[in-house]
Amino acid sequence: MTHAMIRHCVFVKFRSDVPAAERSAIHADLSALRSVIDGMGAVHFNGNVSPEPFARGFTHGFTIDFSDASARDAYLVHEAHRQAGARLVAAIEGGTEGLMVFDLEVSKD
Questions:
Q1: Secondary structure letter of residue 53 according to DSSP
Q2: Architecture in CATH for domain 5-96
Q3: What is the model's pLDDT at position 2?
Q4: How far apart, in whole angstroms, are the C-alpha atoms of residue 87 and residue 23?
Q5: Given the DSSP bridges, would you call strands 60-66 and 5-12 parallel, antiparallel or unpaired?
Q6: What residue segments make up the domains of the chain, in order of their start?
Q7: pTM (two decimals)
Q8: Residue 50 Ramachandran class (φ > 0 left, ψ -120 to 50 alpha, else beta)
Q9: Is 12 within 8 Å of 92 (Cβ atoms)?
Q10: Cα separation of 26 and 38, whole Å?
């Protein structure tokens, strides 16, 4: 039985006083999780560049591809993820109100 890959999509509204260096450090923290979580792929992190007017205030986002749902689930409960997540939430406008998470199943080609 083939399990679908999970694309974990996270969108955030960074506070205006959060410097680029802190955003980069948060990205580095998230990327470092790859060394401790099996099945976690690259973290792609950047600002929104869409010309469409539908960002609803979300300024940045990142995606992580996981080999399957169990790899994603291991990431969610891992202590290193909790620490990185707390740092991320501390930099977001309104805390978790400025955060949106959306996971997609993606077929493995």
A1: S
A2: 2-Layer Sandwich (3.30)
A3: 56
A4: 10
A5: antiparallel
A6: 5-96
A7: 0.91
A8: beta
A9: yes
A10: 20
Whole-number Å distance between alpha carbons of 13 and 99: 7
Task: Note whether 88 and 15 are within 8 A (CB).
Answer: no
| Cβ-based burial of 53 (10 A; exposed 0-12, middle 13-18, buried ≥19) | exposed
Asked if 16 contacts 22 with a C-beta cutoff of 8 angstroms, the reply is no
| pLDDT mean by block of 10 residues, the chain; 109 residues | 85 96 94 94 94 94 96 95 94 96 89
CA gyration radius for the chain? 14
Beta bridge partners of 104: 7
Pairing outcome for strands 99-106 and 5-12: antiparallel
Kindly report the number of other CB atoms within 10 A of residue 30's CB atom: 22
**Pairwise CA distance, residues 57 & 59, whole Å:** 6
